[in-house]
TrEMBL record:
It is found in: Cell envelope. This is ABC transporter substrate-binding protein. Keywords: Signal, Transport. GO terms for cellular component: cell envelope. Residues 32-51 are annotated as: Disordered. Belongs to the bacterial solute-binding protein 1 family. The lineage of its organism: Bacteria, Bacillati, Bacillota, Bacilli, Bacillales. It comes from the Bacteria. Residues 1-22 form the signal peptide. It comes from Paenibacillus apis. It holds the Pfam family SBP_bac_1. InterPro entries: Bact_solute-bd_prot1 (IPR050490), SBP (IPR006059).
């Protein structure tokens, strides 16, 4: 009997040991899921947090931003040894396409760079994560309130801002002065469309054959910049948003038709190229550096530094400057006002959004996304890309961080940027998501293609206006549009 009892005891012990080993070892699928879902645990008897990978899709935000990706990944892992930050680079040209392809496939990155105006688009697709539950009050307090609001919809915080900038235009100082333009006065006091129209006429230069060798104004309107020209000018044409304060679609206003007529006039005057619809961001900047235009758009504060760096390459005569480029001092200028409207600059708040795929992420994975998104948008990382872009950081931690290199600035441009920034208006948070999404649909399906046709002189301003109005009535009804 005693022998039988000992055998039974040994058998039960063996069963218990096998069960324990199985529990400790787990299986490959569970281990993989834990890594991907970010169940960073820490609650199982004080064991180390489970490993997790956070993915990000990011464009070349500044000159050296993508070159620092490896260092950024390493630094993040040093801060959080159980976490891996995996960054996929994208060009500006394919950033949106890449992201939309991944979103449509149900497997987007955890973090992606977008302009804040795109938030309503992704919110309508139900792929955004609200970070409020995982962002501490201390983290939130680090960000400037105005910039922070651009990444909010209702009570949800769908991401964090990287910077706040003003989209402007910029001129070659020598050419501006040759055309008799008091650019310092324009920087501080602005100009009307009528004044601007005459100024860019004066900036046109022709050769002996009557061929234009320098235009007064060139704006990128192709590729990723296809909607920029119209939307930036509209801000100061009495159309600061797609919806007025009564939530009626505003691009059916007579101000919209007036803006379209002005856009066509500048081409018909010969102040802008007839082939404007084919000019992308790269060609527009090349035309500025090679002296083929007096004023270029859209402009950012960082263009001053880009022009300065090319000037240094010209002086060094080492062949690294843009081919056929000339020395050019970049002067920041506000866009003109149209229809007697007040100047309202286009505030650009870009940054990082948090995304989810088909599978619901764990709370721990969302927490880890919060850590990564805060890491990318604050401190030394934000300090350095803001510095390269000639922008003031939007976080206190970035303002207090050291930068890798100091750059010389034009004091007049600094004052101009401050004057434009002072007139920036806060983000509209009252526009319902469904209305915003419908407006973006009209923009994508009607406004952008019709603008390209207008620039190519294939349709008239009236025909474009009528097409947009018809689409707006279809979406919002006769009572949902502005009639003036």
């Amino acid at each position: 009997m005693e022998k039988r009892t000992r055998v039974l005891t040994l058998f039960l012990s063996a069963i218990m040991m096998l069960s324990l080993l199985s529990a400790c070892g787990g299986n490959g699928n569970n281990t993989s899921a834990s890594t991907n879902d970010g169940n960073t645990g820490g609650s199982n008897g004080g064991s180390e947090p489970k490993k997790d990978t956070i993915t990000a899709l990011l464009p070349p935000v500044s000159a050296n931003y993508q070159a620092r990706f490896a260092d950024m990944e390493k630094e993040f892992n040093q801060l959080y040894p159980h976490l891996t930050l995996k960054i996929e680079p994208a060009s500006w040209e394919d950033m949106t396409q890449k992201l939309d392809t991944q979103v449509n496939a149900g497997s987007p990155p955890d973090i992606a760079w977008v302009g804040s105006t795109a938030i309503s688009k992704y919110a309508a697709l139900n792929v955004l994560l609200d970070l409020n539950p995982v962002l501490s009050d201390e983290v939130k307090a680090d960000y400037d309130e105005v910039a922070m609001k651009y990444f909010q919809l209702g009570d949800a915080q769908y991401g964090l801002p990287a910077y706040l900038a003003i989209h402007s235009i910029g001129g070659n100082r020598q050419f501006l002065e040759e055309a008799g333009i008091d650019w310092r006065s324009v920087q501080q006091n602005g100009w009307t469309y009528e004044e601007f129209r005459e100024a860019i006429k004066n900036g046109v230069v022709k050769n002996d054959k009557g061929e234009t060798t320098r235009y007064g104004f060139v704006f990128a309107t192709s590729g990723v910049t296809s909607k920029d020209y119209l939307s930036i000018m509209a801000k100061s044409a009495g159309l600061p948003e797609y919806f007025d304060e009564d939530l009626k679609f505003s691009y059916t206003s007579k101000n919209f038709l007036g803006l379209l007529e002005a856009i066509r006039q500048m081409i018909d005057d010969g102040s802008m190229p007839k082939e404007l619809s084919s000019i992308d961001a790269g060609k527009r900047w090349n035309m500025f550096l090679t002296g083929q235009t007096m004023i270029t758009g859209k402009g950012l504060a960082s263009f001053e530094n880009s022009a300065r760096l090319n000037n240094e390459k010209i002086k060094a005569n080492d062949g690294s400057a843009v081919a056929d480029s000339i020395e050019a001092e970049y002067i920041a200028l506000p866009v003109p006002t149209f229809n007697g409207a007040d100047y309202i600059p286009t505030s650009v708040v870009d940054g990082y959004i948090a995304l989810r795929g088909k599978k619901e992420p764990s709370e721990e994975h969302i927490k880890n996304i919060g850590l990564a998104i805060n890491f990318l948008s604050s401190g030394s990382i934000a300090a350095n890309y803001s510095n390269e872009l000639f922008l003031s950081p939007v976080t206190e931690s970035a303002r207090n961080a050291a930068v890798l290199e100091e750059y010389p600035r034009n004091e007049d441009n600094i004052k101009a940027d401050q004057a434009m920034m002072a007139k920036a208006v806060p983000a509209r948070t009252d526009i319902p998501t469904d209305k915003a999404a419908e407006a973006i649909k009209i923009e994508t399906e009607v406004i952008v293609p019709k603008l390209q046709a207008l620039l190519a002189n294939e349709i008239t301003p009236q025909e474009m206006y009528d097409a947009v109005k018809a689409a707006a009535i279809k979406s919002f009804g006769e009572d949902g549009i502005v009639v003036d």
